[in-house]
Write a sequence for this structure.
């Protein structure tokens, strides 16, 4: 089968890969569509935890073609969502209701899945890998769904939707009337804004430097949009909350500065949810006084809390019922052969979310290009 393979830093393209046979706890999935995410560039640039050569990607939809003898979660013929996280259900963390820390997440970063045309072993980036026509996944990475939503929309369930909605609803547990700030309004932050509205939030603030994204954030539910270029966004948020700060601040920019801002704009006793990652070694600096006695809760969020077995079907139902607005998030659809363009567009933040279809031609899904002509997150 064909796959997008990174052989090293700056060495990326379509290659023929021969997959190994699935083990007892694995499934073979024929992929239909995969969602692009800026975090994939960490591995492409050599900053990930998976060795080269590797197949990137961590959010997709497809159909199970083969299931190992020990697989119980899905069956052959099931439509599934491939999630950029794992939930085995059996490890120390899963049985203690902490699936976001499932040991298969970090424990599966070095996962060989086949060989390229020269016989060199190829790895699944982060243990997942979705930019391919077919892929072998652990049972812990897939969840079955029944949905009539188009593949371009379902592909986002495994990263942007589950991470954004989960951070708001499951991790922060936003309550009706809560004031909420979202720092970074791209692929992840725009789902957070929609989730805050679903949760009945009061005032929703959106902090984003790109004008087109601020406009979209306002259309999707933000009451106040803030351009960091106009001044310190922390001051702006506090000025509009009687000096207190918001009840909940969510970081979705993938930058340490944004994490620090989210912490600073949260009121005493409020909740801070960081979700992005600048790099595996980046360091966040917080003021000791506010950190120690500010009564703030800092809740990191791996894939919206990590309970993918529960969240994916629920969020798929919201998607199918029209409670979410995916058409505004999908701004480009590519064929697998156009992967170089897809990655370049993602690096340049040309849109919000690019979707790669595994068929020979891109989908005919109508894409709304009128609202975003420059920038995305």
């Amino acid at each position: 089968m064909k796959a997008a393979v990174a052989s090293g830093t700056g060495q990326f393209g379509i290659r023929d890969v021969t997959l190994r046979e699935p083990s007892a706890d694995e499934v073979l999935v024929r992929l239909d569509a995969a969602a692009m995410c800026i975090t994939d560039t960490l591995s492409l640039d050599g900053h990930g935890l998976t060795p080269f050569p590797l197949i990137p990607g961590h959010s997709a939809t497809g159909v199970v073609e083969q299931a190992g003898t020990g697989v119980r979660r899905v069956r052959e013929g099931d439509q599934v969502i491939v999630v950029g996280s794992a939930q085995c259900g059996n490890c120390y963390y899963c049985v203690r209701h902490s699936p976001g820390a499932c040991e298969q997440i970090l424990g599966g970063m070095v996962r060989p899945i086949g060989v390229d045309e020269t016989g060199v072993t190829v790895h699944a980036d982060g243990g997942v890998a979705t930019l391919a026509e077919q892929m072998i996944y652990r049972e812990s990475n897939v969840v079955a769904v029944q949905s009539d939503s188009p593949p371009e929309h379902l592909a986002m369930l495994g990263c942007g939707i589950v991470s954004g909605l989960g951070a708001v609803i499951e991790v922060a547990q936003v309550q009706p009337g809560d004031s909420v700030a979202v720092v970074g309004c791209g692929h992840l932050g725009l789902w957070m804004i929609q989730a805050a509205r679903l949760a009945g939030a009061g005032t929703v603030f959106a902090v984003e430097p790109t004008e087109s994204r601020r406009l979209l954030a306002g259309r999707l539910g933000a009451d106040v949009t803030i351009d960091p270029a106009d001044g310190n966004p922390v001051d702006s948020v506090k000025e509009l909350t009687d000096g207190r700060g918001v009840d909940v601040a969510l970081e979705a920019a993938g930058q340490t500065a944004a994490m620090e801002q989210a912490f600073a704009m949260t009121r005493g006793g409020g909740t801070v949810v960081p979700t992005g990652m600048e790099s595996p070694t980046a360091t966040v600096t917080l003021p000791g006084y506010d950190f120690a006695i500010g009564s703030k809760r800092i809740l990191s969020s791996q894939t919206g809390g990590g309970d993918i077995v529960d969240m994916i079907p629920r969020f798929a139902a919201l998607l199918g019922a029209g409670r979410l607005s995916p058409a505004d998030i999908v701004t480009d659809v590519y064929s697998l052969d156009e992967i170089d363009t897809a990655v370049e567009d993602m690096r340049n933040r040309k849109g919000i979310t690019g979707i790669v279809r595994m068929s020979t031609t891109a989908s005919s899904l109508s894409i709304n290009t009128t609202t975003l002509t420059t920038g995305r997150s």
Notes: Confidence is low (pLDDT under 50) at residues 360-364, 366-377. The first helix runs from residue 40 to 44.
